[in-house]
Design a protein that fits this description.
Number of helices of chain B: 11
Strand content of chain B: under 5%
Structural class of chain A: mainly alpha
CATH superfamily of chain A: Ferritin, core subunit, four-helix bundle
Distance between the termini of chain A: 42 Å
Number of strands of chain A: 0
Number of domains of chain A: 1
CATH topology of chain A: Ferritin
CATH topology of chain B: Ribonucleotide Reductase, subunit A
Radius of gyration of chain A: 18 Å
Number of strands of chain B: 2
Shape of chain A: globular
CATH class of chain A: Mainly Alpha
Largest sheet of chain A: none
Oligomer: heterodimer
CATH class of chain B: Mainly Alpha
Chain lengths: 261, 290
């Protein structure tokens, strides 16, 4: 594919339709990921050296990765369902790029689990999955099954992606070198997904502010579930208390920008 | 099975597709490639090209809905991941064929009305038959319908169009080559994964065979409609070097529309029969020949 320097891309120079045509395209997706995925099999450069990890840290890492797999499977199933619900071609194509991103995340985390000596990742994921995360997955897929595009985008691309973006960044700051590399590519993707969610809902709510009431109700229903999930995730990665504050602050900033506080 | 599915990982897909045969392309072709001036200058030829491209968009939209819809029904992570790559492949096909409509002069505001105007009703019914199974969460029937019937048809249609446009329209030909490479992967997954699932669920065979029969009926009706609309001027152009555009023994440069329809239908049906047999299904002839 011909490389476009996405860093020099000026969205403000485009009309809204031209912006959507460019940003929500396979071409833009490829130009975006090419920079950070080329020559990185399973999300890591070959040159990165595995560092020694003691048993307790390894066990915590496996628990974190198992729960990341649950979250990414939820995101994969959710994004796949959203392809069907997307109200226009641009959104369908963006969601298709998100589908493959989420599948890649699942793949790199499963691969990392095997590198850490987990012989049967599927069974380990089932054993270590946080029940609250499994509940959140069910709630998200219910919204998708109901055909509620706005609510599902809010749950998936705003709530879940913002939380994952924050947890993965906190984790990357203390992770071993290989896990840090793997997380770096995932974080770059999550930023794009969260941006889509905020942009899509922001435009829709600016046209029809009445949707805010319904999204506030959904937020109230999901908040406790999601915050509980990520509190546990932060505990697994040994994040300091400031990390918990950062999580709350980034999430609240996002919902405030959408007028959903 | 795990080893086979590893060939369909995201990692492998990244290496083969965006970092492989799509490298240095824009919307599936070389950045400077253009539609031929003769085509753009002739209203009849341009309309025929729009009609053909609309059929490709309709088929790819169906494939996008089906592959994404099957992810939730997939019984294992590896199948989900393969279908994720297929979802993005199909979205790319929607994008590049939509872009071709713009290149042929369709205005962005007129896209949906153009598609509605030229979409073949039998092709729409073909898509609806498949999406009914997908919506019901029937993974085995969905993959047979999508990766064997739909992709098998698309693969052959793309090959015919690619052969016919190789010299006349290198831009369209290159775009098609990339999609053919994608479809080959999709068909391969369908055959491999479904074979084992059919063995586990033999009770599903009659229902799946009925779906195949119905989809085949609408496919043949679509071919019939398409070739009855062929403008003699818009037929594939002969290869400059050989004076031929050979497709399975038929010279597309000199063939009548009836001969082109026959070679296309026979090739697709031959593919169906051998692919279905490989997964343990028996090809069903449509009840009413189209």
């Amino acid at each position: 594919m011909t490389t476009v320097d996405v860093d020099d891309f000026d969205p403000h120079a485009l009309t809204e339709q031209d912006f959507l045509d460019q940003v929500h395209s396979f071409q833009f997706w490829f130009d975006s990921v090419e920079g950070y995925l080329t020559d990185r099999p399973y999300g890591r450069p070959d040159a990165t050296v595995e560092e020694p990890i003691d048993d307790a840290r390894r066990d915590r890492l496996i628990t974190s990765l198992c729960n990341y797999c649950v979250g990414e499977t939820a995101a994969l199933d959710g994004a796949a369902g959203l392809v069907q619900l997307a109200p226009d071609r641009n959104s369908k194509i963006f969601m298709a790029t998100q589908v493959v991103d989420e599948a890649r995340h699942l793949e790199v985390f499963l691969h990392r689990l095997r590198e850490l000596g987990v012989g049967d990742p599927e069974r380990e994921i089932e054993r270590r999955a946080q029940p609250a995360l499994v509940d959140f997955k069910g709630a998200l897929l219910d919204l998708v099954a109901e055909g509620d595009w706005q609510a599902a985008v809010f749950a998936q691309n705003v709530i879940l992606e913002t939380m994952e973006y924050t947890v993965f960044r906190l984790h990357a700051s203390t992770a071993d070198a290989v896990t840090k590399d793997v997380l770096a590519g995932v974080i770059a993707d999550e930023r794009r997904h969260a941006g889509f969610g905020e942009n899509d809902l922001g435009r829709a709510l600016a046209i029809d502010p009445s949707g805010r009431v319904r999204l506030r109700e959904i937020r109230t229903r999901l908040d406790a579930m999601v915050l509980g999930v990520f509190e546990a995730a932060l505990a697994d990665i040994g994040a300091p208390v400031e990390g918990h504050r950062q999580l709350a602050s980034e999430y609240l900033d996002t919902v405030e920008r959408l007028g959903l506080t | 099975m795990a080893e086979f599915l590893a060939q369909y990982s995201i990692q492998r897909w990244m290496e083969m597709c965006p970092q492989g045969y799509l490298e240095d392309t824009v919307y599936g072709h070389e950045p400077d490639a253009r539609e031929p001036d003769e085509l753009l200058a002739d209203d009849d030829e341009r309309e025929a090209a729009i009609r053909t491209t609309v059929s490709l968009v309709v088929g790819e939209r169906c494939a996008l809905a089906a592959s994404s819809g099957l992810i939730n029904a997939a019984p294992d992570h590896a199948s989900k991941r393969f279908l994720a790559t297929q979802t993005l492949d199909e979205a790319r096909h929607v994008e590049i064929f939509t872009q071709r409509l713009y290149d042929l002069g369709v205005k962005k505001d007129d896209l949906e009305s153009t598609i509605n105007r030229y979409a073949n009703p039998n092709l729409v019914k073909f898509a609806e038959t498949l999406l009914e199974k997908v919506d019901a969460g029937d993974f085995v029937a969905g993959v047979v319908g999508q990766n064997i019937v739909l992709e098998g048809m698309a693969f052959t249609v793309f090959e015919l169009l690619e052969t016919g446009n190789r010299e006349f329209n290198p831009k369209f030909s290159q775009t098609l080559k990339g999609t053919i490479a994608d479809e080959r992967r999709h068909v391969g997954f369908g055959e491999n994964r479904i074979g084992s699932l059919i063995q586990q669920h033999p009770e599903k065979k009659p229902e799946i065979e009925r779906m195949q029969q119905e989809m085949t009926y609408y496919m043949l009706a679509t071919f019939s409609d398409s070739f009855s609309n062929v403008d003699p001027k818009s037929r594939p152009q002969p290869d400059a070097a050989t004076g031929e555009a050979d497709f399975h023994g038929t010279n597309l440069a000199t063939a009548t529309p009836e001969e082109m329809e026959a070679v296309l239908a026979n090739t697709v049906l031959g593919e169906f029969k051998s692919r279905l047999a490989r997964v343990g299904l028996e090809y069903q002839t449509p009840t009413v020949p189209a």
